[in-house]
Design a protein that fits this description.
By secondary structure, the chain is of the alpha+beta class. The protein contains 10 helices and 5 strands, in the order H-H-H-H-H-H-E-E-H-H-E-H-E-H-E. It has 2 domains: 147 residues, no CATH class; 122 residues, 60s Ribosomal Protein L30, Chain: A (2-Layer Sandwich). A 5-stranded mixed beta sheet has the order 1-2-5-3-4.
């Protein structure tokens, strides 16, 4: 008997009053699971369908905790691949049983039916070969997606502070590493660090907007600090665009000394306040 559950897509329609809808990746994952549970996988590989359902449940929980977050999209992508993997395994099992049945029939049939049984077995073997190839491809895609998601996060955490906030994923970079004091030209070491940031930005959904905020400490007058912070934000934006991040995704904003993270009364506090924040905004509806 095939696995029978309430369609996740039906649950989404029933919950139409939700304030934040699912990401496209989660929608695709739900559709893929519906296909898996109604396919041959439901009868022949129920354990694979269960794994797909569990992966989808994790994506659903991520959506409930933080709708349209990077975690939701990554888990949804993995859930989609697991559903596709379940379909491939189901077809593989069906083909295997067909081949076994054909071989058994071949043994018991008389000579007059032997050629027909051999043709059926040969056809089943070809189907098995095709299914094995599809299975290997799907497994490779799943492993690549998991590796890419982990590598992007690890890369970011090596060059900057990364934190999830209500406004999105905030990448905070030390201003002293990016610029000479009082200047807006990027240092050579800053370019290497921003290369890693650009790669990470290009790995996330291109529909997500990016805001670059420049911040200063309280040294100098307000007007100078506001101008300097805007110039620094513009420099970072220009560099990221030169590394392939689409210009229409990024805006730059100078905040001057208006949003300190720490006191400006100590050298350590002022150092923390001199920074550039790159905010990957949450996906809007």
């Amino acid at each position: 008997m095939k696995l029978s559950t309430i369609s996740p897509l039906a649950l989404v329609l029933a919950a139409g009053c939700a304030s934040t809808g699912p990401s496209p990746e989660l929608i695709d994952a739900r559709r893929a699971y519906d296909t898996a549970r109604t396919s041959e996988a439901g009868s022949y590989t129920p354990a694979r369908v269960l794994e797909a359902k569990q992966a989808l449940d994790r994506a659903e929980r991520a959506h409930q905790d933080d709708a349209n977050s990077n975690e939701e999209r990554s888990l949804a992508y993995i859930a989609q691949r697991r559903s596709e993997l379940a379909v491939v395994y189901g077809n593989y099992e069906l083909d295997q049983r067909n081949k076994t049945a054909a071989e058994r029939n071949y043994k018991v049939r008389n000579d007059a039916l032997r050629k027909n049984a051999e043709a059926t077995a040969a056809n089943s073997q070809q189907q098995l070969d095709n299914t094995r190839q599809n299975l290997a491809t799907t497994k490779g895609q799943l492993a690549e997606a998991e590796s890419r998601a982990a590598a992007a996060m690890a890369s970011l955490e090596q060059v900057a502070k990364v934190k999830e906030e209500s406004r999105g994923t905030v990448i905070t970079m030390d201003g002293s590493v990016l610029f000479v004091s009082g200047k807006a030209e990027l240092l050579p070491i800053a370019q290497k660090k921003l290369d890693d940031v650009a790669k990470a930005l290009n790995d996330v959904d291109e529909s997500q907007k990016v805001v670059i905020e420049g911040h200063t400490d309280s040294n100098g007058n307000d007007a100078f600090n506001m101008t300097l912070s805007q110039q620094r934000a513009d420099s970072v934006r220009t560099y990221l665009v030169s590394r392939g991040v689409k210009a229409e995704r990024i805006t730059a904003s100078g905040k001057g000394e208006t949003q300190p993270l720490a006191t400006n009364e100590t050298p350590e506090g002022r150092a923390n306040n001199r920074r550039v924040e790159i905010i990957i905004q949450k996906k809007s509806l």
